[in-house]
Write a structure and sequence with these properties.
Layout: H1 4-17, E1 25-28, E2 34-36, H2 40-47, E3 51-58, E4 61-68, E5 71-79, E6 84-89, E7 99-104, E8 110-115, E9 121-125, H3 131-134, H4 152-159, H5 166-171, H6 181-190, H7 204-223, E10 264-268, E11 271-275
Parallel strand pairs: 2-9
Antiparallel strand pairs: 1-7, 3-4, 4-5, 5-9, 6-8, 7-8, 10-11
Helix pairs in contact: 1-7, 4-7, 6-7
The structure holds zinc ion.
The site of zinc ion has 7 residues, from loops.
Length: 283
């Protein structure tokens, strides 16, 4: 599943590729790809003729500003969920069976949304409304990991008294936006905390280490263009390099890169956790 670095990589690709992209024509091949308006036909009518402006990212959401004849025409929201991806096609090409939405420029280039599992979603936010009024998932998001609002003190306050495993807390988008399984596992390794540790039992010094590790691992991965884990691809169909450097993620059964102990893969809160029982004994 794409996490913050992958979504940020897609955002940068869209920003670069769609510079001056006006939607000449749009086709929705699968209705459930459009979360709002309820009728996909209205979505098409709203986006047709719009110029796609600046793309912003909030958590794992992508939000583009739309313009029509120089006037604001609302926003276009996208969540890739499990397997959603954009492809940029300079030349006409037949759609594959997983193609959900197609958008063409006046010169025949196509931006194609392909989604094997079909959980990806798009929204049109009418002009004058804030994106969170329509994309309600935005309302529940915690601070961005790179923002001032996300600090060791914030973590200490939010996790105080909690018996929830720290791994589950990190996956909670209301605590911090954009973190998923990969970066939760990697940052817990780097800060020496076992995934099952009760959140409220982790001291401030250790939370400072965790905070720094999470920010660092997300930064590194964005620089590498996302991760090679899972099926992530950017607009040109390539994936990033972070996977080559994973400490624990998807390394269950292999020796720890630091101490040689066998990396464990445990189920925790319905998700796999990869960790080293030797290096991650702190709290
Ligand atoms: Zn180890």
């Amino acid at each position: 599943m794409p996490e913050l670095p992958e979504v940020e990589t897609v955002r940068r690709g869209l920003e670069r590729q769609l510079h001056d992209f006006s939607i000449e024509r749009i086709e929705v091949l699968r209705a459930r790809a459009v979360a709002w308006p309820p009728d996909p036909e209205l979505f098409c009518v709203a986006l047709q003729g719009c110029r796609v402006g600046h793309w912003q990212r909030r958590g794992k959401y992508l939000i583009a500003a739309l313009e029509q004849q120089g006037e604001p025409a609302g926003h276009w929201g996208v969540h890739l969920r499990m397997t959603g991806q954009f492809l940029w096609l300079e030349q006409p090409r037949e759609p594959c069976s997983h193609t959900r939405v197609r958008l063409w420029s006046s010169s025949g280039q196509e931006l194609r949304f392909v989604d094997t599992r079909s959980f990806g979603q798009m929204w049109w936010v009418p002009p004058g409304q804030p994106p969170e009024a329509v994309i309600t998932g935005l309302q529940k998001l915690g601070p961005e990991p790179f923002s001032d609002g996300f600090s060791p003190t914030y973590l200490a306050q939010r996790l105080a008294g909690s018996s929830r495993p720290i791994k589950s807390a990190l996956l909670d988008q209301a605590l911090v936006a954009g973190v998923g399984n990969i970066y939760a596992d990697e940052s817990l390794f780097l800060s020496g905390i076992a995934p099952s540790t009760a959140s409220g039992r982790i001291g401030l010094a250790r939370l400072e280490t965790l905070h720094a590790a999470l920010v660092e691992v997300l930064h590194t991965s964005i620089g590498a263009g996302g991760t090679t884990f899972s099926d992530f691809r950017d607009l040109s169909g390539t994936n990033g390099n972070y996977g080559n450097a994973a400490w624990v993620y998807r390394r269950g059964g292999e020796p720890c890169r630091v101490c040689g102990t066998t990396i464990r893969r445990d189920r925790l809160g319905g998700r796999s956790s990869h960790w080293c029982p030797q290096c991650q004994s702190g709290g």
